[in-house]
Write a structure and sequence with these properties.
This protein has one domain. Helices cover 65% and strands 0% of the residues. α2 crosses α3. It is built from 3 helices and no strands. It is mainly alpha-helical. It is elongated.
Length: 71
């Protein structure tokens, strides 16, 4: 894993709402997670679920970084 870092400068007004996933995406992810637990996803839905989970993970990392950077 690389240890290099980058700095991103964004207006505070943009940063406050950026890390939040749209509610409909969160709902879809939960729906797919439930169906995945039951073994009911086709390959396309599995790919969709992977993408949504990656988006949620990115949003969480971003939100954590923003929280640490704001006073």
């Amino acid at each position: 894993m690389a240890t290099d870092s980058i700095t991103v400068i964004l207006p505070a007004s943009l940063v406050n709402d950026f890390p939040v996933m749209a509610e409909r995406l969160v709902e879809r992810m939960h729906e797919l997670l439930e169906r995945n637990t039951e073994g009911q996803l086709n390959d396309l839905e599995k790919d969709e679920l992977r993408a949504l989970v990656e988006m949620a993970e990115f949003a969480q990392v971003f939100a954590t970084a923003v929280h640490r950077a704001t006073p």
